[in-house]
Each structure stands twice: as structure tokens, then as C-alpha cells.
Amino acid sequence: MLRTENLGKKYGDFTAVDNLNLEVKEGSIFGFLGHNGAGKTTTISMLTTLILPISGNANIGGYDVVKDNLKVRNLIGYLPENVTLYGDLTAVENLRFFGKLSGVKDVDASIENILKLLEFTEWKNRKVKTYSKGMRQRIGIAQAILHNPKILFLDEPTSGLDPQGTKELRDILLLLNQERGTTIFMNTHLLSEVTKLCTDIGIISKGRLLLADSIKNIEKEFPEEKSLEEIYFKIEGAKR
Amino acid sequence: MIIEIGKKEIRDAFRNKLFLSILAMLLVLTVVSIILGSYQVKIAMDNYNSSISFLQSLGKAELPPMPNLNPISASKGFVNYIGMVGALMAIVLGNTAISKEHKNGTLRLILSRGVFRDTFLNGKLLGNLAILAGITALTGIITFVSLIAIGGVALTTSDIVRLLLFFGMTFLYMTFFTVLSMGIATVSTKGSRALLITVIVWLVLSFVFPQIGDTMDMDNQIPGGFFSSMGMSRDQEHQVLQQFKFYETLRDGVEEMSPTKHYERISYALLNVKPGFEANTPWEVVGLKWINLIGLLAPSAAIWLLTYIAFLRRENIYQSN
Amino acid sequence: MNGIMTLARKEVKTAFRDNIFLIIIGLFVLLSVISVYIGSSTKNAELQAYQDILHLLKSQGATSLPSPPAIYPLSVLSNIVSYVSMIGAVVAIFLGFESFSGERNNGTLKLIAARPVYRDQIVTGKLLGGGMVIGVLLGIILIFNLALFVLVSGMTPGINEIIRLLSFFLIAFIYMMGFYAATMYVSIKTNDSAFGFMLMMIIWLTISFVLPQLAESQRTFAYALNATAQTVTQVSSDTVASKMTELFSPAAQFQNIGKDLLQMIPETSNIGLGEVLLKQIGAIIEILIPGLAVLLLSYKAAQKEEVL
Ligand SMILES: Nc1ncnc2c1ncn2[C@@H]1O[C@H](COP(=O)(O)OP(=O)(O)OP(=O)(O)O)[C@@H](O)[C@H]1O
Ligand SMILES: [Mg+2]
């Protein structure tokens, strides 16, 4: 589904992402772990065609993110960090706008579908600025999956949510993954999230990939460590 | 404590790019308008002197009297610039004073340090008024220096007092807009919205009302002036205008709502730009134009009082936005 | 193309949902209507005053009476020129100052950029949306003005007047779009929307107030000089320096065009539209060029990745 080869990005002299080689299989839920400033958002931005890599390449569903960027954009759904949407528009109006931009055929019908799936029909005609953070995040997910993307990119989707909101979001993502077969690529620094949700993980530190594998394999590789947290700190510590 | 807060305001203002750029613009305009004005005075002066010597060379004993040069009217252009640019600068100053605390979330920090709310607000006002006073003084100095150096005239005591009073009015005028923008920023919960609202109020007060007054002025409607195109004298004009008393009152009423107009009126009277006040002492002019002085002072006082009450009573002050 | 329309429609929708923007356009529309009303009643008062003057002069035994004031139909609407050049420009600034910085803060700019639209389409969409809003506003004002004109003055505008009025509104549209494009450019370049807004307000103040004022004082200065040298007997209204100063002010140019089109200058009140436009061609170009320049800059700036 997704593959990168020596993908790199620099800001001036500063290397934010360095020779990144990743592979994400179709139907998996990939957790991309790393400390603050590790390069997670930069990686996602390159994959979602928002910024250009300085070296290497990446392709999604067989399309190159630089050369075929418009085709890639049709395949992906994206929810960046801290999105507040258009506060003066209602949820439905927000969704209709983004749906049309993606060229969704019957926008209103797919909005209905998705709002039902997310159990949101009750509030759909209220202005978004009156929503709680959790509600807004749900509409954020809704806009990302409106055009039925093959792969969904989420940047720290649970940041700022309470435990209840976090659980609800997790359930939604699992549902999407199982019912629609959507591949999910998720940035996070919350280890607990990863264990509950992901099938595969990658760990990035200071722009370099430290490890990428399925959770099952990792557990086999580190038999003594009881939790993912211990594994994480062991790897991070070893490389520092 | 008040002094500390005030000092911080002054330091902050001189790091504020917007404020600095408007200030720079204002100073440039001041210099340009004063220099042009001073040259005008000098030319009139030279003109008189040369005609005197010409007459003397002809052997005439009866020399024309020295014309009224009125050097202080050199500040006329300055009135217009302060009216607009000065007001905008005052708005930036007042708005950032409050909105920066909202933005950085420092309001909460400061108030939790045991500073009383009134001390906080007073300190902010004091600091910003000190800045305005400094700017007024600076422009005043520029005016005096260039009048004497370029214009080459000796100012009479009355001229000096008139100029000083004029700069006092300038300070009061800018104070109004600083108080206004601080007030709106304090009452509103969102800093950026407050700025927009203040700008709208400013537009209405400084552009719209005077403009409406202007349109209602019959004399303005025909190029060259309606009454002169009719070949009318001042007296006759007066006689005709008597018939339109109500209309004129309405026009006056609209203009009375604008601090910019008040500032302009009292300044023009002080600077002898508007004829009819040459014979009065400076203080008599202020006495005659007391309504304009009130028009500059009262709104500031009222707004400050309201701001005070709102700020002391407000519960949701900690909400940062 | 579809994407551009979707973007433009969203601009229109969000603009009319924004309370502050509604206040400022309410002010704009209201003022232009009031000003026309005042303008026409002042004209009526003038005509009345003329009658009074005749009476007065006759009673004083004067023999030569002044001819009635020349009032051209469109000059009743003439106040609209200063309102569009002042408040109209501010409306454009209010409309555009968050066009990019606001979306950047909402995170919506990334959402748009991750969809199958090109970056330049985003700029085009916003330009089109802003154009639609400004067009609607000017349309409302035009209709109100025409209605008031007929109601208050009792005259029906002829084809020549209507053509002049329409051309004036077209130029007003271009003028406001210039400000909108400039504001959009500033909004692309800065993250701090309050800063961008105030920056544009300073530019506005300079263009529509400070520069014309400077030109004005230059004129009086030159007049004083000439009077001294006694080279000229009449008032010299234009000097090279004042012309130069006005050259930097699209607002002054706009007002010049407006005065000609709306019959405020007796000399140009009866000449054909083509002649007026030809006379003012320089001014028209001067309104167009800065707008086009900032638009090009916007397209260029929108391609950079820092936009997001
Ligand atoms: N536009 C930019 N210009 C310069 N440096 C940048 C830019 N964007 C990111 N960086 C730097 O690149 C590095 C990686 O940033 P990135 O946002 O990808 O980290 P992250 O893993 O998402 O961190 P976080 O968990 O804080 O979101 C950081 O050191 C950051 O300072
Ligand atoms: Mg990040």
C-alpha cells in the first residue's frame, strides 16, 4: 500500500527526516512512534503530498507522491493535528465542502452515511465552533473518510481528548479498518494507544527510523520486556 | 507596582513592529508638514522684507505694516495627520496592551501574583499615556525648532502658549483612542475581534461622521463653492443660511459626535487657521471652544470608567483567547 | 474548475456568516444609501437657496441675476465616490485579511491542499469568491442608488447616464479587488492575522489619505511660491510634485475617474464615455497594475510549501 525509499527532508541545514525506509501493508494499522520533534509530522506531510521530499521517493497505491500527486490525493484521507474546521459553518456544510473538493459523486448521501456510522446525526446542523474537542475530532475523521480513501493518515488523533473520547475514537478506527478495509497510518507518542490499536509499528528518533515491524514480531524479538513501553525505551536508550 | 507595570508597557511598545512603523510614518509626516509650513512662513516674510526695501529704495516714507504672518498655522497639516495616523497609532498601542496578555496567557500569571486588578489596569494606562506624551513632546519640539530655524520668525508669548495648548489637545485626542481600544479589548473575550471592532468605531468616528457633515455642507457641492458661484458675499451667505437653520443644526450634530472634528475645531481656532480668534488670548480661545474640549475629555473619562467597572467585575477573566 | 467553484462558494458562505464582516458591509451599504439621500437633498436645498437668493437680490434692486446652479443628474450620486474609495477598500480588507492566515490556523488549508486541487486553484477560488462577495455588495448599492436617484430627484436616468454609472461601478469593482488581492497576499505571507490586518490598514491610510493630503499641501506650498515670485496670476492647481505624489495613490486616481464619470466636473459632464475613459486611461491602468502585481505575487507565494 505504502512504501518509501530513502525518503529525506531538510529544513535549511537541519535534517528533519533522514533516509526513511518504510512499508505499510494494505489493511494494517500502522503506529508511527517518536518523541517530540522526531520527524513524524514531516513524514506524514511528505506522504500526503503537502511538502516535497529532498531525497528518495515514496509511493502510495502504486503512485509516486511527487509525480502523481493528484492521484495520490484521491487515495488518501488526512486529518492533521489541531484542526478546528470552519467554525461558522455547520458539520454538514464543512463536510459538503470537502466532499466536493474530493469530487465525491453523491455528497449528501455519503455525508448521511458517515454521520450515521459516527453516530453524529443529532448535532450535524450546529455550527462547528460550538462543538467540544471530541465532537470536532469526529467531524475531522468524517471529512477524511468521506471520499472512501484507501489509506487514512492521522496526526496525533487523540491529543487533547479525554479517556472517553479516546476510546470512542479507537472504536471508530477499528470499525473503519474492519468494515471498509481502510489502511491506517497514525502518528502518536502515546504508547498505550499503539498497543490497543495497531498491528504494526515504526519508531523514529531524530529523523531516523529505529525499528519497524509487526507487533507480533516485536514481541517475539524482545521476550523479556513485558510491555511495549519497555521495548520502546530499550531501543531509544540503546541508540542514544 | 503601578510604575513597574507602566515601565513594562513602554518597553513592550518599542518592540512592537506595527507601533514602530506607524510612529515612524507619523514622524516623517510631521517633519514634512512642518517644514513645508515653515517655508511658507519664511517666504511670506522674505516677500515682505523685499517689498519694504524696494519701497524704501523708491524713497517712500509710508511703509505698509507687517502682514499677519501667523507662523503657528504651519501646524495645520499636522492636525490632519494626527487626526488619522495618530489615531491609528493610539489604537494599536491600546489594543496590544490588552490583547498581548490574552494571547500569551500572561493575564492569569500577573493577576495571580497578587496584583490588584485596578493597579494592573492603571499601570497599563499610565505606561501608554506616557508613550503618547513622549510622542507629543517630540513632535512639539520638532515644530518649535523648525519654525525658528527655517521660518526664521520670533514667536510671541501668545503664539507659544497657543502652540503648547494645541499639543495638549493632540495628547488628549490620542488618549481617547488608546482608552477606547483598551476598553474594547478588555470587555471582549477575543483579542483579534476587539481590534476589528475598534477599527470600525474609529472609521465611523473619524471618517464617516465628518464625511456626512461634509456632504451636508451646501457650499461643498459645487466646485469652487456654491455661494461664490452665486456671486454672494459672506453677509448674504449668512442671510440665506438663516433659512436653513435646522439643516445646519443637524449637520453640526453629526459632526459633534466625532472626536476628530472636536480636535480639528479647537486646534484650528488655537492655530488661527480658522479666522475670528486672532484677537483672543489663548485661554479665551479654549474658553470659547470649551465644548470641543469637553468633547475630547468626556468620552475618554466615560469609557475608562466603564472599562474599569467591567474589568473589576468580570469573572471569566482567566479565559485565554 | 469544479474545485474552484467549490472554493469560491465556500468563501461567500463564510463571509456572510461572519458577524464582524456583516457589520462592516451593513455600514458600507447603509452609508452609501444615506450619502446619496443627503447628496440629493442638499441639491434640493441648493435649488431652494437659489430661489431665496433671487428674492433677496431682487428686493435689493439688483439687475443682473446669477444663473441657476448647474446640476448634472449623476452628480446627485457623487458622494458615492468617496465612500467607495474609503469604506469600499476597508470592506475588501476585512474580507481578505484571514483568507489564508485564518485557514492556516484552522488547519483547513492543509485539508484543502491534501485534496485533488492545485495550489493556484486555491488562490483563484478565493479571488473568485471575494469577487462574488464584492460584486454582490456593489450590485446592491447600485440598485439602491438608482432607486433613490429616481425617487428623490424625480429624474429618470438616460442611457448615457446609466452607461456612465455602470462603468463607474465596474471601476469600483476593480479598485476593491485590488485591495482584496493585496490583502490576500499579506495573508499568505503572515501567520498573525491581526498584524496583517493592521498592515493593510496602514497601507490603506497611506494610499487614500496621507498621499492625497501630501499632494494637497504640496499644492498650497507651490501656490505660495508662485505668488511670491509673481510668475502666475491664477491658482496653479497641479504641480509636478503633487502629480507625482498622487501617482502613488490609486485612491486619488480612482476619485479622479469617479468625478469624471459621475458628472462632477462640468467640462467632462457631457462628453462621451469613450472620451472620459480615454482621458483617464492612465488612472485606470494605475488602478489595475498594482492589483495584478500582487495577484501574481500571491500565485507565486501560494506554490511554496511554507504556505501551509
Ligand atoms: N517548517 C519548518 N521549518 C524548520 N524546521 C521545521 C519545520 N517543520 C518542522 N521543523 C523541525 O523539524 C523537526 C521535526 O518536526 P516534526 O514536526 O516532524 O516533529 P514531530 O515528530 O511531528 O513532533 P511532535 O511530536 O512535536 O509533533 C523538528 O525539530 C522541527 O523543529
Ligand atoms: Mg507533529
Structural class of chain B: mainly alpha
State the shape of chain B.
globular
Major β-sheet annotation of chain C: none
Termini separation of chain B comes to 26 Å
SSE order of chain B: HHHHHHHHHHHHH
Tally of separate domains of chain C? 1
Mean pLDDT across every amino acid position of chain C: 84
Shape of chain C: elongated
Count of spatially separate domains of chain B: 1
Largest sheet of chain B, described in full? none
- Low-pLDDT stretches of chain B are none
Number of distinct beta strands of chain C? 0
Which structural category do the helix and sheet elements of chain C fall into? mainly alpha
What is the terminal separation of chain C in angstroms? 22 Å
Q: Enumerate the distinct ligands.
A: adenosine-5'-triphosphate, magnesium ion
Mean pLDDT reading of chain B: 82
Number of contiguous helices of chain C: 12
User: Hey, which two chains have the biggest interface?
Assistant: B-C, 56 and 52 residues
What is the ordering of alpha helices and beta strands of chain C? HHHHHHHHHHHH
Task: Specify the oligomeric state.
Answer: heterotrimer
Write the topology of this structure.
The complex is a heterotrimer of chains A (240), B (321) and C (308).
Chain A: E1 2-11, E2 14-24, E3 29-34, H1 40-47, E4 55-60, E5 63-64, H2 69-75, E6 76-79, H3 91-101, H4 107-117, H5 133-145, E7 151-155, H6 163-179, E8 183-188, H7 191-197, E9 200-205, E10 208-214, H8 215-221, H9 228-239
Parallel strand pairs in A: 3-8, 3-9, 6-7, 7-8
Antiparallel strand pairs in A: 1-2, 1-4, 4-5, 9-10
Chain B: H1 2-13, H2 17-57, H3 76-104, H4 106-112, H5 117-151, H6 157-187, H7 191-215, H8 226-229, H9 234-242, H10 245-256, H11 259-270, H12 282-288, H13 290-313
Helix pairs in contact in B: 1-5, 2-3, 2-5, 3-5, 3-6, 3-7, 3-11, 5-6, 6-7, 6-11, 6-13, 7-10, 11-13
Chain C: H1 2-17, H2 19-59, H3 79-96, H4 101-106, H5 108-113, H6 119-153, H7 159-189, H8 193-229, H9 240-247, H10 250-261, H11 273-279, H12 281-303
Helix pairs in contact in C: 1-6, 2-3, 2-6, 3-7, 3-8, 3-10, 6-7, 6-12, 7-8, 7-10, 7-12, 8-9, 10-12
